[in-house]
Specification:
single chain; 130 residues; mainly beta; 4-stranded antiparallel β-sheet; 9 strands
Length: 130
């Protein structure tokens, strides 16, 4: 099996620089991603990506997400609420060191964070592992 990710040894992660707007999020949302390794080509249905995703305090989305790749998520810091309404009310609250694994085609969200949060995410297409 050949996985197209660079070999990296332990090194500090710069928590202040190298963040960018994640695809699918509004520019004024405050959401930001930092790619740690790999890349994902959604159009070609190929690749693997490990990233940090952060939401600022008061962040919320208004509709569920669905994508064509596998997604594993670990909540590292802060609070994450899942299943809020379009205005950001309600949902189920989760705390650090909670984990989700979603197969392709699984609807999830909407999301909100009252205090802000930091997530570690791994995204991959099954054929990228073959």
């Amino acid at each position: 099996m050949h996985i197209r990710k660079a070999h990296q040894e332990f090194a500090p992660v710069d928590r202040h620089h190298g963040w960018e707007l994640p695809p699918g999020y509004a520019p004024d949302s405050g959401a930001a991603q930092k790619i740690l390794s790999g890349s994902l080509d959604e159009a070609a249905g190929a690749g693997l990506r490990t990233r940090l995703l952060r939401f600022p305090p008061g962040f919320h989305t208004s509709a569920p997400f669905v994508h064509t790749y596998w997604e594993e998520v670990l909540l590292l810091e802060g609070d994450l609420w899942v299943g809020n309404d379009a205005s950001g009310r309600g949902g189920e609250e989760f705390h650090p060191l909670t984990y989700a694994c979603r197969p392709p085609g699984m609807f999830h969200g909407p999301f909100k964070s009252v205090a802000g949060c930091l997530l570690l995410e791994c995204h991959y297409f099954a054929r990228s592992l073959a």
